[in-house]
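The data are quoted verbatim here:
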Amino acid sequence: MKTIDTCGQKNYSPLIPAVKAMCEAPKGEKLEIIMDDATAFNDLKEYLAEQQIGFREIYDGEQMTLQFTV
């Protein structure tokens, strides 16, 4: 499983490294995206749902994690 940690990202949207990882991942690879930006987290969840990609949500204090297979 490849982990992308976007916590603390201030220079650009945390969605950028998340989408980049999705685009570069071979079909069938498992990704774990860790965020601390609730808006970006919800946007990514909405995108995955629209693409009919199942995902697992994990909440740990300020951190939110999505796990899914590309």
In short: The beta strands are 2-5, 30-35, 55-60, 63-69. The first helix runs from residue 15 to 24.
